[in-house]
């Protein structure tokens, strides 16, 4: 299989590293890919940092391994190759009345990527993370064998892969449960939030009546407005609830995005003023939604603009996402939001939500509050994030590895104390570190 040399990065375009890319089109090709030294699998490159990057080493691009294998229309169980994306699954199965159970903020993720980061969506407090829709998968291991992993077969391998960053093998096929739907629309409500007290109370109040909830927070607001924003809530719409016009085509599909950011915007396009203006625009748009909204707008609003990541310029950006426990949540969030507002870094697109209990060994979620913030990469940011990491750790929290690009090994290990359990599984299945990546070397996730 030909090796193609090229620059690779995650969605944040930071860091960028030269890697050798292999593109298998069969299981045999994937096995061949293991012959040429350490490799890491890559899906659609939507993790933000160095998860699917392997400097001067090999990256196995799995997006051509995307065939559907079996479908049961009575149970909603789908078996397909792990390079299939949620976009491809939705395109085929939404018109039949079935939808992925767990959706992140973009539909351009592969099943392999969804497992490797054990992704979560707006309904984590009710549905949990991606592991909850996976029945089993097959995986190509370092010794070239292909095994099945499920809750009852190679269970250690199964659990270690959720949040395992592709470091245990190449996931080849996945058997997953889809959810039955009557329509592809959501009943939506939005609540203008005055401050953090109001935000936490509203989440508490509505989480029992709405499956989906997510808030946008103005991370530059301070004092009595700290924590202000807009909370968006929703439930899947039943057919009888839809207005007459939407009932004509209740299982309508998305169209591909028409807008695009064609090149990297210059760095000076982002400054305090543009952030403030954007915050006002977001607050206005979020606060005036329609009562019924299509899934593409509800789950994946950012997909409307192709390559929006280029808007942050060539230096790239980091999405900093942490979760902290509910206990003392208000006091800790106040401290963290003040640190961010005072940092001089420019927080964009700040997403806040509540999480339910977590599961996989290295899975990110646990019961608490999570905040995700996009920061353009600047020298100031690189000096600031270690202080923020220390604060998150002090408050019993941790960072989402699927978005991380900067965390150091010591802080990571303190944030994820079950890493030793994970390393025992790594040693069992990949003692020679056949699977490695820039993040595995940065965080010490090696046998
Ligand atoms: C706009 C946007 C919104 C997002 N919203 C959310 C959100 O709400 N919740 C959330 O949890 N995440 C979210 N994400 C992150 C995204 O869901 C994850 O990073 C996901 O893992 C990306 O999948 P991918 O196919 O692009 O994988 P990549 O980014 O290409 O790879 C991610 C990891 O998966 C591994 N991997 C990929 N394929 C395989 C395979 N076949 N076998 C083994 N390992 C494999 C890679 O080695 C790597 O470690 C968002 C990302 C974007 C850009």
From TrEMBL:
Q: Which UniProt keywords apply?
A: Oxidoreductase
Name one cellular component (GO) term. Answer: membrane
- Which Pfam families has this protein been placed in? ALO (PF04030), FAD_binding_4 (PF01565)
List the molecular function annotations (GO) for this entry: D-arabinono-1,4-lactone oxidase activity; FAD binding
Q: Which domain of life, per UniProt?
A: Bacteria
Report the residue ranges that make up the FAD-binding PCMH-type domain in this protein.
13-181
Record flagged with keyword S-adenosyl-L-methionine: no
- Please give the name of this protein: FAD-binding oxidoreductase
Organism the protein comes from: Chitinophaga lutea
